[in-house]
Design brief:
This protein is α+β, with helices and mostly antiparallel strands and about 625 residues long. It is built from 15 helices and 33 strands.
Length: about 625
Protein backbone atom coordinates (compact mmCIF):
# COMPACT_ATOMS: atom_id res chain seq x y z
CA UNK A 1 0.00 0.00 0.00
CA UNK A 2 1.19 3.48 -0.86
CA UNK A 3 -0.31 6.50 0.89
CA UNK A 4 -0.55 9.62 -1.29
CA UNK A 5 -0.49 13.17 0.01
CA UNK A 6 0.25 15.13 -3.18
CA UNK A 7 -3.08 16.14 -4.67
CA UNK A 8 -1.60 16.28 -8.17
CA UNK A 9 -0.72 12.59 -8.03
CA UNK A 10 -4.28 11.49 -7.29
CA UNK A 11 -7.11 11.38 -9.86
CA UNK A 12 -10.56 12.82 -9.16
CA UNK A 13 -12.78 10.47 -7.13
CA UNK A 14 -15.49 8.79 -9.23
CA UNK A 15 -19.22 9.01 -8.60
CA UNK A 16 -20.81 6.19 -6.66
CA UNK A 17 -24.57 6.73 -6.81
CA UNK A 18 -25.01 6.90 -10.60
CA UNK A 19 -23.53 4.69 -13.34
CA UNK A 20 -23.91 4.87 -17.12
CA UNK A 21 -23.28 2.39 -19.93
CA UNK A 22 -24.38 3.44 -23.41
CA UNK A 23 -28.00 4.51 -23.12
CA UNK A 24 -28.44 2.81 -19.74
CA UNK A 25 -28.36 4.76 -16.49
CA UNK A 26 -28.44 3.09 -13.08
CA UNK A 27 -29.04 4.91 -9.83
CA UNK A 28 -28.46 3.84 -6.24
CA UNK A 29 -30.31 5.25 -3.27
CA UNK A 30 -32.05 4.55 -0.02
CA UNK A 31 -35.20 3.96 -2.02
CA UNK A 32 -33.66 1.10 -3.95
CA UNK A 33 -31.98 0.29 -7.26
CA UNK A 34 -33.26 2.03 -10.41
CA UNK A 35 -32.52 1.62 -14.13
CA UNK A 36 -33.60 3.47 -17.26
CA UNK A 37 -32.70 3.53 -20.95
CA UNK A 38 -32.37 6.93 -22.63
CA UNK A 39 -35.21 9.23 -21.70
CA UNK A 40 -37.43 6.48 -20.35
CA UNK A 41 -38.81 6.66 -16.86
CA UNK A 42 -36.56 4.76 -14.45
CA UNK A 43 -37.83 1.41 -13.19
CA UNK A 44 -37.08 -0.05 -9.82
CA UNK A 45 -35.25 -3.38 -10.03
CA UNK A 46 -36.07 -6.46 -7.96
CA UNK A 47 -33.19 -8.89 -8.57
CA UNK A 48 -34.00 -12.61 -8.57
CA UNK A 49 -31.41 -15.37 -8.26
CA UNK A 50 -32.97 -18.82 -8.01
CA UNK A 51 -35.26 -18.84 -5.00
CA UNK A 52 -33.95 -15.51 -3.78
CA UNK A 53 -35.69 -12.27 -4.68
CA UNK A 54 -34.55 -8.95 -3.27
CA UNK A 55 -36.14 -5.57 -2.97
CA UNK A 56 -32.82 -3.77 -2.45
CA UNK A 57 -32.77 -1.08 0.19
CA UNK A 58 -29.99 1.25 1.26
CA UNK A 59 -28.19 0.75 -2.06
CA UNK A 60 -24.85 2.47 -1.57
CA UNK A 61 -23.28 2.20 -5.02
CA UNK A 62 -23.86 1.07 -8.62
CA UNK A 63 -21.35 0.38 -11.37
CA UNK A 64 -21.14 -0.89 -14.95
CA UNK A 65 -17.95 -2.85 -15.63
CA UNK A 66 -16.10 -3.00 -18.98
CA UNK A 67 -18.14 -6.07 -19.92
CA UNK A 68 -21.39 -4.15 -19.57
CA UNK A 69 -22.49 -5.93 -16.41
CA UNK A 70 -24.40 -3.95 -13.80
CA UNK A 71 -23.19 -4.26 -10.17
CA UNK A 72 -24.76 -2.90 -7.03
CA UNK A 73 -24.05 -3.07 -3.33
CA UNK A 74 -26.79 -2.84 -0.73
CA UNK A 75 -27.61 -3.74 2.85
CA UNK A 76 -28.65 -7.22 1.65
CA UNK A 77 -25.38 -7.89 -0.17
CA UNK A 78 -23.83 -7.69 -3.62
CA UNK A 79 -25.66 -8.13 -6.92
CA UNK A 80 -24.75 -8.41 -10.61
CA UNK A 81 -26.91 -8.29 -13.73
CA UNK A 82 -25.39 -9.90 -16.83
CA UNK A 83 -26.71 -11.44 -20.03
CA UNK A 84 -27.49 -14.67 -18.20
CA UNK A 85 -29.49 -12.93 -15.49
CA UNK A 86 -28.97 -11.92 -11.89
CA UNK A 87 -26.43 -13.27 -9.43
CA UNK A 88 -26.62 -12.35 -5.74
CA UNK A 89 -24.04 -12.77 -2.97
CA UNK A 90 -24.42 -12.70 0.81
CA UNK A 91 -22.22 -13.88 3.65
CA UNK A 92 -23.36 -17.44 2.95
CA UNK A 93 -21.86 -17.07 -0.55
CA UNK A 94 -18.54 -15.75 0.74
CA UNK A 95 -19.24 -12.00 0.83
CA UNK A 96 -17.25 -10.62 3.78
CA UNK A 97 -19.15 -7.32 4.16
CA UNK A 98 -22.42 -5.93 2.78
CA UNK A 99 -23.40 -2.30 2.37
CA UNK A 100 -21.02 -1.02 -0.33
CA UNK A 101 -20.02 2.65 -0.29
CA UNK A 102 -18.49 2.57 -3.78
CA UNK A 103 -17.67 0.23 -6.69
CA UNK A 104 -15.08 0.14 -9.46
CA UNK A 105 -13.59 -2.52 -11.72
CA UNK A 106 -10.49 -3.53 -13.64
CA UNK A 107 -10.60 -3.93 -17.44
CA UNK A 108 -11.22 -7.68 -17.11
CA UNK A 109 -14.25 -7.11 -14.87
CA UNK A 110 -12.59 -7.82 -11.51
CA UNK A 111 -14.58 -5.78 -9.02
CA UNK A 112 -13.36 -3.52 -6.20
CA UNK A 113 -15.90 -2.86 -3.45
CA UNK A 114 -15.56 -0.07 -0.92
CA UNK A 115 -17.22 -0.56 2.46
CA UNK A 116 -17.24 0.89 5.95
CA UNK A 117 -14.81 -1.92 6.83
CA UNK A 118 -12.21 -1.69 4.10
CA UNK A 119 -11.97 -2.80 0.48
CA UNK A 120 -13.03 -6.07 -1.14
CA UNK A 121 -11.59 -7.36 -4.40
CA UNK A 122 -13.75 -9.90 -6.23
CA UNK A 123 -12.71 -11.89 -9.31
CA UNK A 124 -16.11 -13.55 -9.70
CA UNK A 125 -15.22 -16.53 -7.46
CA UNK A 126 -13.13 -15.33 -4.53
CA UNK A 127 -13.37 -12.27 -2.31
CA UNK A 128 -10.18 -10.71 -0.93
CA UNK A 129 -10.31 -8.34 2.04
CA UNK A 130 -8.01 -5.32 2.19
CA UNK A 131 -8.47 -3.79 5.60
CA UNK A 132 -6.36 -2.23 8.30
CA UNK A 133 -3.14 -0.26 8.19
CA UNK A 134 -1.32 -2.84 6.08
CA UNK A 135 -3.61 -1.74 3.24
CA UNK A 136 -5.42 1.52 3.99
CA UNK A 137 -5.07 4.79 5.92
CA UNK A 138 -8.60 4.24 7.24
CA UNK A 139 -11.19 1.48 6.82
CA UNK A 140 -14.03 3.83 5.80
CA UNK A 141 -13.75 3.88 1.99
CA UNK A 142 -15.39 6.76 0.11
CA UNK A 143 -14.39 6.10 -3.49
CA UNK A 144 -12.34 3.73 -5.67
CA UNK A 145 -10.84 4.07 -9.14
CA UNK A 146 -9.50 0.71 -10.34
CA UNK A 147 -7.32 0.17 -13.39
CA UNK A 148 -5.32 -2.70 -14.84
CA UNK A 149 -2.49 -2.23 -12.35
CA UNK A 150 -4.44 -1.85 -9.12
CA UNK A 151 -6.68 0.81 -7.60
CA UNK A 152 -6.75 4.30 -6.14
CA UNK A 153 -8.70 4.34 -2.88
CA UNK A 154 -10.07 7.40 -1.13
CA UNK A 155 -10.67 6.84 2.60
CA UNK A 156 -11.72 8.95 5.52
CA UNK A 157 -8.05 9.11 6.57
CA UNK A 158 -6.42 9.80 3.21
CA UNK A 159 -5.75 8.37 -0.24
CA UNK A 160 -3.99 5.07 -0.91
CA UNK A 161 -2.81 3.14 -3.91
CA UNK A 162 -2.83 -0.67 -3.97
CA UNK A 163 -0.72 -2.00 -6.82
CA UNK A 164 -0.97 -5.41 -8.45
CA UNK A 165 2.66 -6.32 -8.94
CA UNK A 166 3.56 -9.41 -10.99
CA UNK A 167 5.98 -11.64 -9.12
CA UNK A 168 6.97 -15.26 -8.56
CA UNK A 169 7.36 -17.36 -5.44
CA UNK A 170 11.11 -17.42 -6.05
CA UNK A 171 11.33 -13.64 -6.36
CA UNK A 172 9.48 -13.29 -3.06
CA UNK A 173 11.95 -15.68 -1.44
CA UNK A 174 14.88 -13.61 -2.65
CA UNK A 175 13.21 -10.47 -1.33
CA UNK A 176 12.88 -11.97 2.15
CA UNK A 177 16.45 -13.31 2.13
CA UNK A 178 17.78 -9.87 1.22
CA UNK A 179 15.68 -8.26 3.96
CA UNK A 180 16.95 -10.75 6.55
CA UNK A 181 20.57 -10.12 5.54
CA UNK A 182 19.92 -6.40 5.71
CA UNK A 183 17.89 -6.02 8.91
CA UNK A 184 17.33 -9.19 10.89
CA UNK A 185 20.73 -10.67 11.73
CA UNK A 186 21.59 -10.07 15.37
CA UNK A 187 25.13 -10.32 16.80
CA UNK A 188 28.12 -11.44 14.70
CA UNK A 189 26.61 -14.95 14.71
CA UNK A 190 23.55 -13.76 12.80
CA UNK A 191 20.66 -14.94 14.95
CA UNK A 192 17.52 -14.19 12.93
CA UNK A 193 14.72 -12.36 14.68
CA UNK A 194 12.21 -9.54 14.32
CA UNK A 195 13.16 -5.90 14.93
CA UNK A 196 11.42 -2.96 16.62
CA UNK A 197 10.73 0.21 14.63
CA UNK A 198 10.36 3.68 16.21
CA UNK A 199 7.66 4.67 13.70
CA UNK A 200 4.80 2.44 12.49
CA UNK A 201 5.45 0.94 9.09
CA UNK A 202 8.89 2.56 8.79
CA UNK A 203 12.02 0.42 9.14
CA UNK A 204 14.27 3.47 9.48
CA UNK A 205 16.21 3.23 12.73
CA UNK A 206 15.00 -0.31 13.46
CA UNK A 207 16.35 -1.77 16.70
CA UNK A 208 17.30 -5.45 16.95
CA UNK A 209 15.87 -7.48 19.82
CA UNK A 210 16.31 -10.91 21.39
CA UNK A 211 13.65 -13.40 22.41
CA UNK A 212 13.19 -16.59 24.42
CA UNK A 213 13.31 -18.53 21.16
CA UNK A 214 16.22 -17.18 19.14
CA UNK A 215 17.57 -20.71 18.82
CA UNK A 216 14.25 -22.03 17.51
CA UNK A 217 13.68 -19.23 14.99
CA UNK A 218 17.27 -19.37 13.74
CA UNK A 219 16.96 -23.15 13.43
CA UNK A 220 13.86 -22.82 11.28
CA UNK A 221 15.43 -20.12 9.14
CA UNK A 222 18.58 -22.22 8.75
CA UNK A 223 16.56 -25.32 7.86
CA UNK A 224 14.91 -23.35 5.07
CA UNK A 225 18.34 -22.51 3.69
CA UNK A 226 19.33 -26.18 3.88
CA UNK A 227 16.31 -27.05 1.76
CA UNK A 228 17.20 -24.13 -0.53
CA UNK A 229 20.71 -25.45 -1.13
CA UNK A 230 19.42 -28.95 -1.79
CA UNK A 231 16.93 -27.64 -4.35
CA UNK A 232 19.00 -24.96 -6.08
CA UNK A 233 22.71 -25.55 -5.27
CA UNK A 234 22.87 -21.83 -4.48
CA UNK A 235 26.16 -20.79 -2.90
CA UNK A 236 24.28 -18.07 -1.00
CA UNK A 237 21.98 -20.70 0.50
CA UNK A 238 24.98 -22.79 1.55
CA UNK A 239 26.60 -19.72 3.13
CA UNK A 240 23.43 -18.88 5.04
CA UNK A 241 22.95 -22.46 6.21
CA UNK A 242 26.57 -22.55 7.42
CA UNK A 243 26.06 -19.30 9.33
CA UNK A 244 22.98 -20.78 11.04
CA UNK A 245 25.02 -23.84 12.07
CA UNK A 246 27.74 -21.65 13.58
CA UNK A 247 25.15 -19.62 15.50
CA UNK A 248 23.40 -22.69 16.89
CA UNK A 249 26.64 -24.43 17.77
CA UNK A 250 27.71 -21.35 19.71
CA UNK A 251 24.62 -21.64 21.91
CA UNK A 252 26.21 -24.84 23.24
CA UNK A 253 29.74 -23.41 23.45
CA UNK A 254 28.83 -20.22 25.31
CA UNK A 255 27.37 -22.07 28.33
CA UNK A 256 30.69 -23.72 29.20
CA UNK A 257 32.99 -22.17 31.80
CA UNK A 258 32.63 -18.90 33.63
CA UNK A 259 31.29 -18.36 37.13
CA UNK A 260 28.09 -20.33 36.42
CA UNK A 261 29.03 -23.11 34.00
CA UNK A 262 26.30 -25.39 32.69
CA UNK A 263 26.85 -29.14 32.31
CA UNK A 264 28.47 -30.11 28.99
CA UNK A 265 25.98 -30.16 26.15
CA UNK A 266 23.58 -27.61 27.61
CA UNK A 267 22.39 -25.02 25.08
CA UNK A 268 21.42 -21.42 25.77
CA UNK A 269 18.22 -19.86 24.53
CA UNK A 270 20.01 -16.81 23.19
CA UNK A 271 22.82 -14.34 23.92
CA UNK A 272 23.25 -10.62 24.54
CA UNK A 273 26.49 -8.61 24.44
CA UNK A 274 28.00 -7.99 27.87
CA UNK A 275 28.66 -4.40 26.79
CA UNK A 276 24.92 -3.70 27.11
CA UNK A 277 22.65 -3.48 30.17
CA UNK A 278 22.63 -6.39 32.61
CA UNK A 279 19.50 -8.42 31.71
CA UNK A 280 19.43 -9.94 35.22
CA UNK A 281 18.35 -6.69 36.86
CA UNK A 282 14.88 -7.18 38.33
CA UNK A 283 14.52 -10.55 36.67
CA UNK A 284 14.32 -12.68 39.81
CA UNK A 285 11.47 -10.55 41.16
CA UNK A 286 9.57 -10.90 37.88
CA UNK A 287 10.11 -14.65 37.94
CA UNK A 288 8.71 -14.86 41.47
CA UNK A 289 5.58 -13.01 40.34
CA UNK A 290 5.19 -15.40 37.42
CA UNK A 291 5.54 -18.41 39.71
CA UNK A 292 3.10 -17.00 42.29
CA UNK A 293 0.41 -15.82 39.87
CA UNK A 294 0.69 -17.80 36.62
CA UNK A 295 2.76 -20.98 36.81
CA UNK A 296 3.46 -22.77 40.08
CA UNK A 297 6.34 -24.65 38.46
CA UNK A 298 7.98 -21.61 36.94
CA UNK A 299 11.67 -21.88 37.59
CA UNK A 300 13.53 -19.39 39.76
CA UNK A 301 16.99 -19.22 38.23
CA UNK A 302 19.60 -16.78 39.51
CA UNK A 303 21.24 -15.64 37.38
CA UNK A 304 18.96 -16.36 34.47
CA UNK A 305 21.61 -14.71 32.27
CA UNK A 306 25.09 -15.96 33.31
CA UNK A 307 28.21 -14.34 31.90
CA UNK A 308 30.32 -16.33 29.44
CA UNK A 309 33.83 -17.47 30.32
CA UNK A 310 35.39 -14.78 28.13
CA UNK A 311 33.16 -12.08 29.63
CA UNK A 312 31.77 -11.05 26.25
CA UNK A 313 28.26 -12.51 26.36
CA UNK A 314 25.30 -12.96 28.64
CA UNK A 315 23.65 -16.26 27.80
CA UNK A 316 20.06 -17.05 28.69
CA UNK A 317 19.28 -20.27 30.52
CA UNK A 318 16.12 -22.19 31.37
CA UNK A 319 16.10 -23.45 27.78
CA UNK A 320 12.82 -24.99 26.68
CA UNK A 321 11.77 -28.05 24.73
CA UNK A 322 10.81 -26.03 21.65
CA UNK A 323 14.40 -24.79 21.44
CA UNK A 324 15.56 -28.40 21.43
CA UNK A 325 13.04 -29.30 18.74
CA UNK A 326 14.43 -26.51 16.58
CA UNK A 327 18.03 -27.66 16.97
CA UNK A 328 17.16 -31.27 16.19
CA UNK A 329 15.14 -30.14 13.18
CA UNK A 330 18.08 -28.19 11.74
CA UNK A 331 21.06 -30.47 12.36
CA UNK A 332 19.93 -33.49 10.28
CA UNK A 333 18.93 -31.22 7.38
CA UNK A 334 22.32 -29.53 7.50
CA UNK A 335 24.08 -32.91 7.79
CA UNK A 336 22.14 -34.52 4.91
CA UNK A 337 21.69 -31.64 2.50
CA UNK A 338 24.54 -29.18 3.00
CA UNK A 339 27.63 -30.93 4.36
CA UNK A 340 30.04 -31.95 1.63
CA UNK A 341 33.17 -33.00 3.52
CA UNK A 342 34.00 -35.39 6.36
CA UNK A 343 35.17 -32.41 8.40
CA UNK A 344 31.80 -30.69 8.07
CA UNK A 345 29.93 -33.83 9.00
CA UNK A 346 32.20 -34.38 12.00
CA UNK A 347 31.26 -30.92 13.30
CA UNK A 348 27.59 -31.85 13.25
CA UNK A 349 28.28 -35.21 14.87
CA UNK A 350 30.10 -33.52 17.74
CA UNK A 351 27.29 -31.03 18.38
CA UNK A 352 24.48 -33.60 18.22
CA UNK A 353 26.41 -36.10 20.35
CA UNK A 354 27.16 -33.68 23.18
CA UNK A 355 23.58 -32.40 23.32
CA UNK A 356 21.99 -35.85 23.21
CA UNK A 357 24.45 -37.31 25.70
CA UNK A 358 23.67 -34.44 28.06
CA UNK A 359 20.03 -35.50 28.24
CA UNK A 360 20.80 -39.21 28.50
CA UNK A 361 23.38 -38.59 31.25
CA UNK A 362 20.87 -36.50 33.19
CA UNK A 363 18.05 -39.03 33.05
CA UNK A 364 16.34 -37.52 29.97
CA UNK A 365 16.22 -34.03 31.34
CA UNK A 366 17.82 -30.77 30.20
CA UNK A 367 19.79 -29.59 33.23
CA UNK A 368 20.82 -25.97 33.73
CA UNK A 369 23.80 -24.40 35.51
CA UNK A 370 22.02 -24.80 38.86
CA UNK A 371 22.01 -28.59 38.48
CA UNK A 372 18.22 -28.74 38.06
CA UNK A 373 16.04 -29.35 34.99
CA UNK A 374 14.75 -26.38 33.07
CA UNK A 375 11.04 -25.55 33.32
CA UNK A 376 10.18 -27.42 30.12
CA UNK A 377 13.18 -29.74 29.86
CA UNK A 378 11.49 -32.87 31.24
CA UNK A 379 11.54 -36.02 29.11
CA UNK A 380 12.07 -38.70 31.77
CA UNK A 381 9.67 -41.66 32.13
CA UNK A 382 9.10 -40.84 35.78
CA UNK A 383 7.97 -37.36 34.81
CA UNK A 384 5.88 -38.12 31.75
CA UNK A 385 4.23 -41.34 32.90
CA UNK A 386 4.05 -40.97 36.68
CA UNK A 387 3.80 -37.24 37.50
CA UNK A 388 0.39 -35.66 36.97
CA UNK A 389 2.02 -32.28 36.36
CA UNK A 390 3.52 -33.75 33.19
CA UNK A 391 0.72 -35.96 31.90
CA UNK A 392 -0.41 -33.19 29.56
CA UNK A 393 3.06 -33.23 27.97
CA UNK A 394 3.40 -37.02 27.90
CA UNK A 395 2.72 -37.51 24.20
CA UNK A 396 4.62 -34.52 22.87
CA UNK A 397 7.71 -34.94 25.03
CA UNK A 398 7.85 -38.68 24.39
CA UNK A 399 7.73 -37.96 20.67
CA UNK A 400 10.41 -35.28 21.01
CA UNK A 401 12.81 -37.52 22.89
CA UNK A 402 12.39 -40.31 20.34
CA UNK A 403 13.06 -37.75 17.60
CA UNK A 404 16.24 -36.55 19.34
CA UNK A 405 17.53 -40.11 19.67
CA UNK A 406 16.64 -40.95 16.07
CA UNK A 407 18.50 -37.86 14.83
CA UNK A 408 21.51 -38.77 16.98
CA UNK A 409 21.49 -42.31 15.59
CA UNK A 410 21.21 -41.02 12.02
CA UNK A 411 23.92 -38.36 12.32
CA UNK A 412 26.48 -40.25 14.42
CA UNK A 413 25.80 -43.76 13.10
CA UNK A 414 26.03 -45.08 16.68
CA UNK A 415 23.66 -47.91 17.60
CA UNK A 416 23.65 -46.94 21.27
CA UNK A 417 21.09 -44.24 20.58
CA UNK A 418 18.78 -46.79 18.98
CA UNK A 419 19.21 -49.00 22.06
CA UNK A 420 18.32 -46.14 24.40
CA UNK A 421 15.23 -45.37 22.34
CA UNK A 422 14.27 -49.05 22.37
CA UNK A 423 14.36 -49.05 26.17
CA UNK A 424 12.05 -46.03 26.30
CA UNK A 425 9.71 -47.70 23.81
CA UNK A 426 9.65 -51.22 25.27
CA UNK A 427 9.76 -50.42 28.98
CA UNK A 428 8.04 -47.01 29.17
CA UNK A 429 5.63 -46.89 26.23
CA UNK A 430 7.12 -43.88 24.48
CA UNK A 431 6.01 -44.94 20.99
CA UNK A 432 2.46 -45.51 22.24
CA UNK A 433 2.59 -42.11 23.94
CA UNK A 434 3.63 -40.56 20.62
CA UNK A 435 0.45 -41.79 18.94
CA UNK A 436 -1.32 -38.87 20.63
CA UNK A 437 1.20 -36.01 20.98
CA UNK A 438 -1.44 -33.61 22.34
CA UNK A 439 -5.11 -33.72 23.25
CA UNK A 440 -7.29 -32.14 20.57
CA UNK A 441 -11.07 -31.82 20.48
CA UNK A 442 -11.02 -31.16 16.74
CA UNK A 443 -9.74 -28.53 14.31
CA UNK A 444 -9.19 -25.24 16.10
CA UNK A 445 -8.71 -26.76 19.54
CA UNK A 446 -4.95 -27.20 19.47
CA UNK A 447 -1.96 -25.13 20.44
CA UNK A 448 -0.02 -24.27 17.29
CA UNK A 449 3.27 -23.99 19.17
CA UNK A 450 2.92 -27.62 20.28
CA UNK A 451 1.67 -28.57 16.81
CA UNK A 452 4.78 -27.08 15.24
CA UNK A 453 7.01 -28.99 17.65
CA UNK A 454 5.19 -32.27 17.04
CA UNK A 455 5.32 -31.96 13.27
CA UNK A 456 9.06 -31.22 13.27
CA UNK A 457 9.65 -34.30 15.43
CA UNK A 458 7.37 -36.51 13.35
CA UNK A 459 9.16 -35.42 10.19
CA UNK A 460 12.42 -36.77 11.65
CA UNK A 461 10.84 -40.01 12.82
CA UNK A 462 8.88 -40.80 9.66
CA UNK A 463 11.87 -39.87 7.50
CA UNK A 464 14.53 -41.89 9.33
CA UNK A 465 12.79 -44.81 11.09
CA UNK A 466 13.50 -48.15 9.39
CA UNK A 467 11.58 -50.36 11.81
CA UNK A 468 8.26 -51.01 9.97
CA UNK A 469 6.17 -51.30 13.14
CA UNK A 470 7.52 -48.10 14.68
CA UNK A 471 7.25 -46.20 11.43
CA UNK A 472 3.58 -47.17 11.17
CA UNK A 473 3.01 -45.71 14.63
CA UNK A 474 4.69 -42.46 13.64
CA UNK A 475 2.78 -42.34 10.37
CA UNK A 476 -0.51 -42.83 12.21
CA UNK A 477 0.35 -40.00 14.57
CA UNK A 478 1.42 -37.74 11.72
CA UNK A 479 -1.77 -38.37 9.77
CA UNK A 480 -3.94 -37.52 12.76
CA UNK A 481 -2.06 -34.25 13.06
CA UNK A 482 -2.39 -33.54 9.37
CA UNK A 483 -6.16 -33.98 9.52
CA UNK A 484 -6.39 -31.61 12.46
CA UNK A 485 -4.26 -28.84 11.00
CA UNK A 486 -5.24 -29.17 7.32
CA UNK A 487 -7.91 -26.39 7.62
CA UNK A 488 -5.15 -24.00 8.72
CA UNK A 489 -3.83 -23.84 5.14
CA UNK A 490 -0.30 -24.09 6.52
CA UNK A 491 2.26 -24.94 3.81
CA UNK A 492 4.95 -25.89 6.33
CA UNK A 493 2.78 -28.50 8.05
CA UNK A 494 1.56 -29.83 4.70
CA UNK A 495 4.98 -30.08 3.07
CA UNK A 496 6.65 -31.76 6.05
CA UNK A 497 3.92 -34.37 6.36
CA UNK A 498 3.65 -35.22 2.67
CA UNK A 499 7.39 -34.86 2.10
CA UNK A 500 8.20 -37.64 4.56
CA UNK A 501 5.76 -40.14 3.04
CA UNK A 502 6.82 -43.10 0.91
CA UNK A 503 4.81 -44.78 -1.80
CA UNK A 504 2.50 -47.40 -0.32
CA UNK A 505 2.55 -46.05 3.25
CA UNK A 506 -0.44 -47.47 5.15
CA UNK A 507 -1.66 -48.35 8.62
CA UNK A 508 -2.19 -52.09 8.97
CA UNK A 509 -4.40 -53.55 11.70
CA UNK A 510 -7.17 -56.11 12.18
CA UNK A 511 -9.57 -53.92 10.21
CA UNK A 512 -7.37 -54.03 7.11
CA UNK A 513 -5.03 -51.62 5.34
CA UNK A 514 -5.66 -47.87 5.65
CA UNK A 515 -3.55 -45.79 3.23
CA UNK A 516 -1.70 -42.84 4.72
CA UNK A 517 -2.61 -39.98 2.40
CA UNK A 518 -2.79 -36.20 2.68
CA UNK A 519 -6.05 -34.33 3.00
CA UNK A 520 -7.64 -33.00 -0.20
CA UNK A 521 -6.56 -29.52 -1.31
CA UNK A 522 -3.32 -29.71 0.69
CA UNK A 523 -1.21 -28.57 -2.26
CA UNK A 524 -3.65 -25.95 -3.57
CA UNK A 525 -4.03 -24.46 -0.08
CA UNK A 526 -0.25 -24.46 0.44
CA UNK A 527 0.45 -22.70 -2.84
CA UNK A 528 -2.33 -20.18 -2.22
CA UNK A 529 -0.85 -19.32 1.17
CA UNK A 530 2.63 -18.86 -0.30
CA UNK A 531 1.28 -16.70 -3.12
CA UNK A 532 -0.69 -14.51 -0.74
CA UNK A 533 2.02 -14.34 1.94
CA UNK A 534 2.50 -10.55 2.36
CA UNK A 535 5.87 -8.97 1.82
CA UNK A 536 4.75 -6.37 4.37
CA UNK A 537 5.87 -7.96 7.67
CA UNK A 538 4.95 -5.07 9.96
CA UNK A 539 2.75 -5.98 12.93
CA UNK A 540 -0.46 -4.34 11.82
CA UNK A 541 -3.63 -5.14 13.74
CA UNK A 542 -6.65 -6.79 12.14
CA UNK A 543 -10.37 -7.15 12.80
CA UNK A 544 -12.23 -10.04 11.18
CA UNK A 545 -14.81 -11.06 13.77
CA UNK A 546 -17.48 -8.83 12.17
CA UNK A 547 -17.28 -10.54 8.77
CA UNK A 548 -20.38 -12.12 7.25
CA UNK A 549 -18.40 -15.02 5.78
CA UNK A 550 -17.00 -16.08 9.17
CA UNK A 551 -18.37 -18.78 11.45
CA UNK A 552 -17.37 -18.55 15.10
CA UNK A 553 -15.92 -21.62 16.76
CA UNK A 554 -17.89 -22.86 19.78
CA UNK A 555 -16.53 -21.93 23.18
CA UNK A 556 -15.87 -25.56 24.11
CA UNK A 557 -13.11 -25.68 21.47
CA UNK A 558 -11.13 -23.06 23.37
CA UNK A 559 -9.73 -25.66 25.82
CA UNK A 560 -8.95 -22.91 28.29
CA UNK A 561 -7.41 -20.55 25.76
CA UNK A 562 -8.08 -16.83 25.79
CA UNK A 563 -7.49 -14.24 23.11
CA UNK A 564 -10.88 -13.17 21.79
CA UNK A 565 -13.13 -14.60 19.11
CA UNK A 566 -11.96 -17.50 16.99
CA UNK A 567 -13.49 -18.82 13.82
CA UNK A 568 -13.29 -19.94 10.20
CA UNK A 569 -14.66 -18.99 6.85
CA UNK A 570 -17.75 -20.88 5.83
CA UNK A 571 -15.63 -23.44 4.00
CA UNK A 572 -14.26 -24.58 7.38
CA UNK A 573 -10.78 -23.19 6.74
CA UNK A 574 -8.97 -20.31 8.40
CA UNK A 575 -8.82 -16.87 6.81
CA UNK A 576 -6.22 -16.32 4.08
CA UNK A 577 -2.82 -15.29 5.33
CA UNK A 578 -2.95 -11.80 3.81
CA UNK A 579 -6.10 -11.01 5.80
CA UNK A 580 -4.42 -11.51 9.20
CA UNK A 581 -0.94 -11.21 10.68
CA UNK A 582 1.34 -14.23 10.95
CA UNK A 583 4.69 -13.83 12.68
CA UNK A 584 5.64 -17.48 13.03
CA UNK A 585 3.75 -20.70 12.36
CA UNK A 586 3.14 -21.14 16.10
CA UNK A 587 0.48 -18.42 16.07
CA UNK A 588 -3.23 -19.14 16.61
CA UNK A 589 -4.47 -19.19 13.03
CA UNK A 590 -8.10 -19.38 14.18
CA UNK A 591 -7.97 -16.08 16.03
CA UNK A 592 -10.04 -13.48 14.17
CA UNK A 593 -8.82 -10.20 15.68
CA UNK A 594 -5.32 -9.12 16.62
CA UNK A 595 -3.70 -6.01 17.97
CA UNK A 596 -0.64 -4.40 16.45
CA UNK A 597 0.68 -0.91 15.88
CA UNK A 598 3.06 -1.56 12.99
CA UNK A 599 6.19 -1.04 15.09
CA UNK A 600 7.32 -4.65 14.97
CA UNK A 601 8.93 -5.91 11.76
CA UNK A 602 9.16 -9.68 11.42
CA UNK A 603 11.57 -11.50 9.18
CA UNK A 604 10.41 -13.65 6.28
CA UNK A 605 11.71 -17.01 7.52
CA UNK A 606 8.12 -18.19 7.93
CA UNK A 607 7.83 -17.98 4.16
CA UNK A 608 11.29 -19.26 3.28
CA UNK A 609 11.08 -22.53 5.21
CA UNK A 610 7.89 -23.91 3.60
CA UNK A 611 8.79 -22.49 0.18
CA UNK A 612 12.16 -24.21 0.08
CA UNK A 613 10.76 -27.38 1.68
CA UNK A 614 8.25 -27.44 -1.18
CA UNK A 615 11.05 -27.03 -3.71
CA UNK A 616 13.17 -29.74 -2.10
CA UNK A 617 10.33 -32.27 -2.06
CA UNK A 618 9.24 -31.46 -5.62
CA UNK A 619 5.89 -29.87 -4.79
CA UNK A 620 6.90 -26.53 -6.36
CA UNK A 621 8.85 -25.56 -9.46
CA UNK A 622 12.18 -23.80 -8.97
CA UNK A 623 10.82 -20.80 -10.85
CA UNK A 624 7.33 -20.20 -12.19
CA UNK A 625 7.21 -17.01 -14.23
CA UNK A 626 3.56 -17.60 -15.01
CA UNK A 627 2.24 -17.00 -11.50
CA UNK A 628 -0.55 -14.42 -11.28
CA UNK A 629 -0.14 -10.92 -9.96
CA UNK A 630 -0.23 -10.58 -6.21
CA UNK A 631 -1.34 -7.53 -4.20
CA UNK A 632 1.54 -5.66 -2.60
Amino acid sequence: MRELTEAAAVPTPPENAVARHGELTARAGRDGLWLCAGDEEPSRLFPTDGVRRWAPAEVGAVHFDALGRLWFGSAQGLGRLAEDGWRLWTGADGLPHAGATCLSSEPDGTLWIGTERGVLRFDGEHFEVRRGRRWLPDDRVNAIAADGDGAWIWTRGGVARIDLEPTTLGAKARFFEDEIDRRHRRTPFGFVHSVHCPQPGDATGAVQTDSDNDGLWTSMYGTGECFAFAATESTDARRRARAAFEALRFLGDVTQGGEHPAPPGFIARTILPASGPDPNEGRLERDRRTRDTEDARWKLLDPRWPLSADGEWYWKGDTSSDELDGHYFFYPRYFDLVCRTDEERAEVVAVVRRLTDHMIDHGFRLVDHDGLPTRWGHFAPADLNDDRDWWEERGLNSLSMLSYLKVAEHVTGEDRYREVARTLIDEHGYAANALWPKFHAGPGSGNQSDDEMAIMGLYNLVLYEDDPELRQIYLRSARRYHRLVAPERNPLFHFLFVGALREGDAWEDSWGSDPIQPQPDWLADSIDTLRRFPRDRFTWGFVNSDRLDVVLLPDWLRLGRSGGKRGTRRDGKVLPIDERFVGYWNHDSWRLDSGGDGRGLYDGASYLLPYYAGLHHGFLAVEDAGEPSAPR
